[in-house]
Amino acid sequence: MSRMLIADDQDGIRLMLAQVFQNLGIEVDTANDGQNAWEKLEQNGYDLVLLDMNMPRMFGHEVLRNMRQRDIDTPVMIMTAFGEKSTLEEVQRLGITAQFEKPFDIYRMIEKVKEVLKIT
Fold first, then answer.
1. Domain extent listing, the chain
2. Which class in CATH covers the domain with range 3-111?
3. 89 to 1, 108, 112: CA distances (angstroms)
4. DSSP string, 26-82
5. Quick one: pLDDT at residue 83?
6. pLDDT for 43-68, tens place per residue?
7. What pTM did the predictor assign?
Protein backbone atom coordinates (compact mmCIF):
# COMPACT_ATOMS: atom_id res chain seq x y z
CA MET A 1 0.00 0.00 0.00
CA SER A 2 1.28 3.46 -0.89
CA ARG A 3 1.84 6.06 1.84
CA MET A 4 1.25 9.76 1.35
CA LEU A 5 1.73 12.86 3.49
CA ILE A 6 -0.68 15.76 2.94
CA ALA A 7 0.52 19.03 4.50
CA ASP A 8 -1.86 21.99 4.42
CA ASP A 9 -2.89 24.43 7.14
CA GLN A 10 -6.45 24.72 5.80
CA ASP A 11 -8.47 22.02 7.56
CA GLY A 12 -11.08 21.72 4.82
CA ILE A 13 -8.53 21.14 2.05
CA ARG A 14 -6.40 18.77 4.12
CA LEU A 15 -9.34 16.66 5.26
CA MET A 16 -10.99 16.57 1.82
CA LEU A 17 -7.75 15.44 0.16
CA ALA A 18 -7.15 12.83 2.85
CA GLN A 19 -10.61 11.37 2.26
CA VAL A 20 -10.20 11.36 -1.53
CA PHE A 21 -6.87 9.56 -1.43
CA GLN A 22 -7.89 7.13 1.33
CA ASN A 23 -10.79 6.14 -0.91
CA LEU A 24 -8.20 5.21 -3.55
CA GLY A 25 -6.56 2.83 -1.07
CA ILE A 26 -3.66 5.11 -0.17
CA GLU A 27 -2.51 5.26 3.45
CA VAL A 28 -2.66 8.98 4.29
CA ASP A 29 -0.92 10.93 7.02
CA THR A 30 -1.60 14.66 7.48
CA ALA A 31 0.16 17.71 8.86
CA ASN A 32 -1.43 21.08 9.64
CA ASP A 33 1.75 23.18 9.38
CA GLY A 34 5.24 23.03 7.98
CA GLN A 35 6.99 22.12 11.22
CA ASN A 36 4.60 19.22 11.80
CA ALA A 37 5.16 18.06 8.20
CA TRP A 38 8.93 18.16 8.64
CA GLU A 39 8.75 16.19 11.90
CA LYS A 40 6.66 13.50 10.20
CA LEU A 41 9.05 13.36 7.25
CA GLU A 42 11.99 12.83 9.59
CA GLN A 43 10.21 9.95 11.33
CA ASN A 44 8.30 8.21 8.52
CA GLY A 45 8.80 7.11 4.96
CA TYR A 46 6.33 8.25 2.32
CA ASP A 47 5.86 7.46 -1.35
CA LEU A 48 4.51 10.95 -2.09
CA VAL A 49 4.19 14.33 -0.34
CA LEU A 50 1.46 16.84 -1.18
CA LEU A 51 2.78 20.11 0.21
CA ASP A 52 1.12 23.51 0.60
CA MET A 53 3.58 26.35 0.09
CA ASN A 54 2.16 28.89 2.55
CA MET A 55 1.91 27.33 6.01
CA PRO A 56 2.65 28.54 9.54
CA ARG A 57 5.80 27.57 11.45
CA MET A 58 7.65 26.53 8.27
CA PHE A 59 6.88 27.33 4.64
CA GLY A 60 6.51 24.52 2.15
CA HIS A 61 9.66 25.46 0.24
CA GLU A 62 11.61 25.22 3.53
CA VAL A 63 10.23 21.73 4.14
CA LEU A 64 11.24 20.76 0.60
CA ARG A 65 14.71 22.30 1.00
CA ASN A 66 15.20 20.34 4.26
CA MET A 67 14.11 17.15 2.52
CA ARG A 68 16.59 17.55 -0.31
CA GLN A 69 19.45 18.60 2.01
CA ARG A 70 18.93 15.36 3.93
CA ASP A 71 18.66 13.29 0.74
CA ILE A 72 14.94 12.58 1.14
CA ASP A 73 14.08 12.21 -2.55
CA THR A 74 10.38 11.44 -2.12
CA PRO A 75 8.27 12.88 -4.97
CA VAL A 76 6.67 16.19 -3.93
CA MET A 77 3.65 17.92 -5.42
CA ILE A 78 3.12 21.49 -4.31
CA MET A 79 -0.09 23.44 -3.86
CA THR A 80 -0.04 27.20 -3.83
CA ALA A 81 -2.37 30.15 -3.99
CA PHE A 82 0.60 32.47 -4.03
CA GLY A 83 2.65 32.10 -7.18
CA GLU A 84 5.67 34.12 -6.05
CA LYS A 85 8.13 33.68 -8.88
CA SER A 86 11.35 33.29 -6.86
CA THR A 87 9.79 30.68 -4.55
CA LEU A 88 8.38 28.72 -7.48
CA GLU A 89 11.78 28.80 -9.18
CA GLU A 90 13.40 27.47 -6.00
CA VAL A 91 11.00 24.53 -5.63
CA GLN A 92 11.45 23.67 -9.29
CA ARG A 93 15.24 23.63 -8.80
CA LEU A 94 14.80 21.41 -5.73
CA GLY A 95 12.73 19.01 -7.79
CA ILE A 96 8.98 18.81 -7.69
CA THR A 97 6.79 16.33 -9.49
CA ALA A 98 3.84 18.68 -10.05
CA GLN A 99 2.45 22.06 -9.10
CA PHE A 100 -1.21 22.85 -8.45
CA GLU A 101 -2.54 26.38 -8.18
CA LYS A 102 -5.36 26.86 -5.67
CA PRO A 103 -8.17 26.46 -6.36
CA PHE A 104 -6.97 23.30 -8.07
CA ASP A 105 -8.69 20.76 -10.30
CA ILE A 106 -9.10 17.73 -8.01
CA TYR A 107 -9.52 15.36 -10.96
CA ARG A 108 -6.20 16.49 -12.45
CA MET A 109 -4.56 16.03 -9.05
CA ILE A 110 -6.02 12.54 -8.65
CA GLU A 111 -4.71 11.52 -12.06
CA LYS A 112 -1.22 12.83 -11.26
CA VAL A 113 -1.16 11.07 -7.87
CA LYS A 114 -2.28 7.81 -9.50
CA GLU A 115 0.43 8.22 -12.14
CA VAL A 116 3.20 8.82 -9.59
CA LEU A 117 2.09 5.99 -7.28
CA LYS A 118 1.36 3.68 -10.23
CA ILE A 119 -2.27 3.13 -9.20
CA THR A 120 -4.76 2.05 -11.85
1. 3-111
2. alpha beta
3. 32, 22, 21
4. -EEEEESSHHHHHHHHHH---SEEEEESS-SSS-HHHHHHHHHHTT----EEEEES-
5. 63
6. 999 999 999 999 999 999 999 999 99
7. 0.95
